[in-house]
C-alpha cells in the first residue's frame, strides 16, 4: 500500500479507535483498584473498631489477631497513600495500566510514593522548626530542587514544587535549614489547590 | 555564603557532593553558578603611566553534573572562566573536576579522578567565599596578579586517588596525586628528565579536621610534592569559631619551593584573620587582614591586604557583594599600594 495522505489519515483513525478503549480500560482499572483499596480499608477499620469495642468482643479476639489487623490496616493506609500519590502523576497511571501488569503498577506506586508523598498534606505535619533534615526527607522525600542558600543565616533550602512557572495551579513548599535543622517552613497551599481543581 | 565554613569545606571535599541540586531523576542532578563582576583598580605603582584599570565581565560559569548510583557516585564540573584580556589572560573552558567516588561505608570514601585540593580555608569557588576577592593576591592595574614569579602556590585541582573518612565531628583524608604545585602535572612517578638525579614525580596531601564543639573547628594539612624541578611543601593550618551571627577565622601557611638550577630556594609564609557578621537575615559584612612573605636569597616580597566587604542576598540564590581592598606591597625595595573596588553578582542554581 502506498503511503498517501488518505492512507495516513485512515491508519491514524484506526489507531485512535483501537487505542482509546485501552486507555479508557486502563483508567477504569485504576479507579476500580482504588475503590477496592478504599473498600478494604473501610472494612478493616470497621473490624478493628468492632474488635476494640467491648469486653465481649475483646474476649473473642486474640492479641495476635489484633496485631495482624493493625498491621494490615497500616499497610492498607500506606497503599492508599501510594495510590493517591500515583494518581497525582496523571499520565503515568494510564501507562502503567495499559501494561496490564500489577507488578508494574506497584513499582510505579512505590516510586510515586517515594517522590510525591510531599503532595499529601498530612505528610507535612511532622515538618516543624527544629526538625532534622533527615526527618524532613523521611516525611516528604528528597526535594526535586534544593540550593545552598546565599543568605547568611540560612544554610540550605529545599523546594518541593510541582511546577516553577505555573502560579495558579501548582503546589509549592519551601523549607529552610540552619545547621541541619528546620528554620522555616512554607507549606504548599493544599486548600487553594483543591479549590482550583 | 556562610555554608562554606572551614570544616564544612573539608567535609564537602570529602563527601564530594553538595546536597544543593536540581534533580533530573534518581541518578542525575545538576547544580552550578554564574559569577559576574565590575571592578576598578587604582595603583601608585610606576606602570608605564597607567594608574587605574576597570574590569567588567562574567568571571565564571560552572555547571556540575552529579551522578548517583548508590555506593558509586560521580561528579563532572564544566566551567567557563573569563580572564582579563588586557592582562593577557585567556578565557578558559575546561573540565574543572571529574571524579568518581566509591563509598566503603561508615563515612569512608575512595575518590579517583580530578578533584579539589583539601587544603586552604578559602574556597576555590566564589560561592564559598565571604567576600569578592581571595586573601593572598590582588590584581595590579595591568590585570595581573602581584604574586612574584618563581613562587609556586598550591594547585586548586589535582589528579589522583584519595581516601577520606568523615564522621560527625572529624575528617581525615590522604591523597596520592600527580602534583600539588603545578609541576609535572598529568604524570605519576618515573624519571623523565636527562639529569643524573633519580627523580620521581608525585605528590601527597594529608589533611584532618575536628569539630571541638561550641562552634570551634580546627584543620591541619600538608602537601608534599616531589618533582623533577625539586621538592615543594606546604603546611596549612586554620581555625574557625562561630558564635551567633559571628564567624571568625584564622589561617597560617608555611611552605618552601625548591627550584633546582636556581641559587636559592623560596621560603614563604602567609596568613589571614577574618570576621564575618550577619547583621540581618539577608546581609552580612566581612573584614579581613591577610599577609604574604616570600624570601628567596636576597629577594624579599611582602604583601599586606585589608578587605571590607558587604554581602546582600537578594534571594536564596542571588547575592550582591560590594568590596573594597587595599594592598600594600614591598617587592625588592619597590613599595606601592593598590586599591581595588568591586561589585559582584552571584547567581546559583
Notes on the structure:
The complex is a heterodimer of chains A (197) and B (349). Chain A has 7 helices and 4 strands. Chain A folds into 2 domains: 5-118, no CATH class; 121-196, Beta-lactamase Inhibitory Protein, Chain:B, domain 1 (2-Layer Sandwich). The N and C termini of chain A lie far apart (47 Å). Helix content of chain A is 60%, strand content 12%. Residues 91-99 of chain A have low confidence and may be disordered. Chain A has helices spanning 5-53, 55-60, 63-87, 91-99, 102-116, 133-140, 190-196; strands spanning 145-148, 156-161, 172-178, 181-186. Chain B is mainly β and 349 residues long. Chain B has one domain (2-348): Porin (Beta Barrel), CATH 2.40.160. Chain B has one helix at 6-15; strands at residues 21-23, 28-43, 52-69, 72-81, 92-105, 108-116, 157-166, 170-177, 202-213, 216-227, 230-243, 246-257, 266-278, 283-296, 299-315, 318-331, 334-348. A 16-stranded antiparallel β-barrel of chain B has the order 2-3-4-5-6-7-8-9-10-11-12-13-14-15-16-17. The longest helix of chain B is centred in the first third of the chain and has 10 residues, at 6-15. Chain B starts with 5 loop residues before the first helix and ends with a strand. The relative contact order of chain B is 0.16. The interface between A and B is medium-sized, with 17 and 29 residues.
What does the largest sheet of chain A look like? Answer: 4 strands, antiparallel
Q: What percentage of the residues of chain A does DSSP assign to strands (E)?
A: 5-15%
Structural shape of chain B: globular
Secondary-structure-based class of chain B equals: mainly beta
CATH superfamily (homologous) name of chain B: Porin
Order of helices and strands of chain B: HEEEEEEEEEEEEEEEEE
Helix content of chain B: under 10%
Describe this structure in a few short sentences:
The complex is a heterodimer of chains A (197) and B (349). Chain A is α+β, with helices and mostly antiparallel strands.
Amino acid at each position: 500500500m502506498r503511503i498517501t495522505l488518505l492512507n495516513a489519515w485512515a491508519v491514524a483513525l484506526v489507531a485512535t479507535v483501537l487505542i482509546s478503549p485501552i486507555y479508557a480500560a486502563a483508567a477504569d482499572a485504576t479507579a476500580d483498584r482504588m475503590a477496592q483499596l478504599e473498600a478494604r480499608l473501610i472494612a478493616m477499620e470497621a473490624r478493628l473498631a468492632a474488635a476494640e469495642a467491648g469486653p465481649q468482643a475483646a474476649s473473642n479476639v486474640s492479641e495476635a489477631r489484633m496485631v495482624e489487623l493493625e498491621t494490615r490496616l497500616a499497610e492498607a493506609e500506606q497503599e492508599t497513600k501510594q495510590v493517591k500519590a500515583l494518581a497525582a502523576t496523571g499520565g503515568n497511571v494510564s501507562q502503567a495500566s495499559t501494561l496490564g501488569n500489577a507488578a508494574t503498577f506497584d513499582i510505579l506506586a512505590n516510586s510515586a510514593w517515594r517522590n510525591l508523598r510531599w503532595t499529601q498534606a498530612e505528610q507535612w505535619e511532622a515538618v516543624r522548626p527544629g526538625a532534622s533534615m533527615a526527618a524532613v526527607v523521611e516525611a516528604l522525600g528528597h526535594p526535586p530542587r534544593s540550593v545552598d542558600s546565599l543568605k547568611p543565616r540560612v544554610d540550605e533550602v529545599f523546594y518541593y514544587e510541582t511546577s516553577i512557572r505555573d502560579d495558579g495551579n501548582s503546589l509549592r513548599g519551601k523549607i529552610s535549614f540552619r545547621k541541619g535543622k528546620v528554620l522555616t517552613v512554607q507549606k504548599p497551599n493544599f486548600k487553594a489547590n483543591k479549590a482550583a481543581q | 555564603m556562610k555554608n562554606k565554613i572551614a570544616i564544612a569545606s573539608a567535609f564537602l571535599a570529602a563527601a564530594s557532593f553538595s546536597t544543593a541540586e536540581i534533580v533530573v531523576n534518581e541518578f542525575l542532578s545538576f547544580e552550578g553558578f554564574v559569577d559576574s563582576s565590575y571592578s576598578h583598580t587604582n595603583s601608585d605603582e610606576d606602570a608605564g603611566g597607567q594608574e587605574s584599570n576597570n574590569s567588567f565581565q562574567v568571571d565564571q560559569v560552572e555547571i556540575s553534573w552529579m551522578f548517583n548510583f548508590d555506593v558509586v557516585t560521580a561528579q563532572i564540573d564544566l566551567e567557563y572562566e573569563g580572564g582579563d584580556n588586557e592582562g593577557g589572560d585567556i578565557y578558559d573552558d575546561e573540565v574543572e573536576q571529574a571524579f568518581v567516588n566509591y563509598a566503603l561505608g561508615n563515612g569512608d570514601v575512595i575518590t579517583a579522578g580530578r578533584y579539589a585540593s583539601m587544603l586552604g580555608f578559602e574556597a576555590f569557588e566564589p560561592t564559598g567565599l565571604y567576600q569578592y576577592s581571595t586573601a593572598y593576591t590582588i590584581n595590579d592595574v595591568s590585570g595581573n596578579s602581584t604574586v612574584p614569579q618563581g613562587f609556586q602556590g598550591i594547585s586548586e585541582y589535582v589528579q589522583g586517588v584519595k581516601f577520606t573518612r568523615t564522621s560527625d565531628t572529624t575528617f581525615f583524608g590522604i591523597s596520592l596525586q600527580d602534583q600539588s604545585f603545578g609541576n609535572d602535572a598529568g604524570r605519576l612517578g618515573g624519571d623523565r628528565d636527562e639529569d643524573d638525579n633519580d627523580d620521581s614525580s608525585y605528590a601527597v596531601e594529608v589533611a584532618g579536621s575536628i569539630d571541638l564543639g561550641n562552634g570551634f573547628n580546627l584543620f591541619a594539612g600538608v602537601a608534599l610534592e616531589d618533582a623533577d624541578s625539586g621538592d615543594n611543601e606546604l603546611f596549612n593550618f586554620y581555625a574557625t569559631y562561630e558564635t551567633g551571627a559571628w564567624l571568625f577565622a584564622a589561617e597560617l601557611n608555611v611552605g618552601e619551593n625548591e627550584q633546582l638550577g636556581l641559587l636559592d630556594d623560596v621560603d614563604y609564609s602567609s596568613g589571614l584573620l577574618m570576621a564575618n557578621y550577619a547583621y540581618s537575615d539577608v546581609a552580612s559584612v566581612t573584614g579581613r587582614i591577610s599577609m604574604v612573605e616570600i624570601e628567596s636569597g636576597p629577594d624579599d616580597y611582602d604583601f599586606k591586604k585589608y578587605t571590607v566587604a558587604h554581602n546582600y542576598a537578594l534571594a536564596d540564590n542571588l547575592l550582591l557583594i560590594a568590596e573594597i581592598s587595599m594592598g600594600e606591597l614591598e617587592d625588592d625595595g619597590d613599595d606601592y599600594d593598590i586599591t581595588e573596588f568591586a561589585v559582584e553578582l552571584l547567581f546559583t542554581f
